[in-house]
Amino acid sequence: MEKFQKCDPAIIYHDLFDLGYVDVAVCQPTYLTDFYREGFNTTKQNAQMKELYLDCFILNGAFDPRDG
User: For residue 49, how far is the Cα from the chain centroid?
Assistant: First the structure.
């Protein structure tokens, strides 16, 4: 349970690329700011993954029309 409450980039990389069968991962932000103070799976958090592992991640953006 603790592993899934806060995954750092090294754990995500290890699970996807070392243990899993992923060649390139696509990150689609979800935010969920109504449920999490700092959001969940935000563009900023995904950018950290891209900075650490340049050739492994493709980043998508997100917008919510309710934000104006």
Answer: 7
